[in-house]
Amino acid sequence: MNKIKLNYISTSSHGFIKISKYDLQAFKIEPNQFSDFSFFNQEEACFYLEEDCDANKLTALIKDKGIEIAFNESSEDELEPKYDSNFSRIKSTINYANL
């Protein structure tokens, strides 16, 4: 079985799973499947998927492809994507051509 290690980041107010856009592309997962509560960081080329809904959706999509998931957990209290100009919210119209 294939495996992937994802970063779970806990902040002072929320939690996110961080995954690169290249991993999403490799798994053929479109970012428009996720809500506007999740974010994309253009500088890092990574998605930050919020813990309440999108993180569970991501893990289900990956597991459905037969991929085992392990997590690296960390705490970044200063991370606030909604206030950071390097982050943008995922919109339903986002696609890889725009990234």
Main pleated sheet: 6 strands, mixed
Overall average residue pLDDT: 88
Structural class: alpha+beta
CA-to-CA gap between the ends?
30 Å
Low-confidence stretches: none
How much of the sequence lies in strands comes to: 35-45%
Strand arrangement, major sheet: 5-1-2-4-3-6
Kindly state the number of beta strands. Answer: 6
Q: What is the global morphology?
A: globular
Helix content: 10-25%
Provide a count of the helices. Answer: 2
What value does the Rg take, in angstroms? 13 Å
Helix and strand run: EEHEEHEE
- The number of distinct structural domains comes to 1
Question: Topology of this protein?
Answer:
Blueprint lengths: L1 E9 L4 E6 H6 L12 E3 L4 E5 L3 H11 L2 E9 L11 E3 L10
Parallel strand pairs: 1-5
Antiparallel strand pairs: 1-2, 2-4, 3-4, 3-6
Model description:
It is a single chain. With 99 residues, the chain is α+β, with helices and mostly antiparallel strands. The N and C termini lie far apart (30 Å). It has a 6-stranded mixed sheet. Helices cover 17% and strands 35% of the residues. It is built from 2 helices and 6 strands. The protein has one domain. Strand 1 and strand 2 form a beta hairpin.
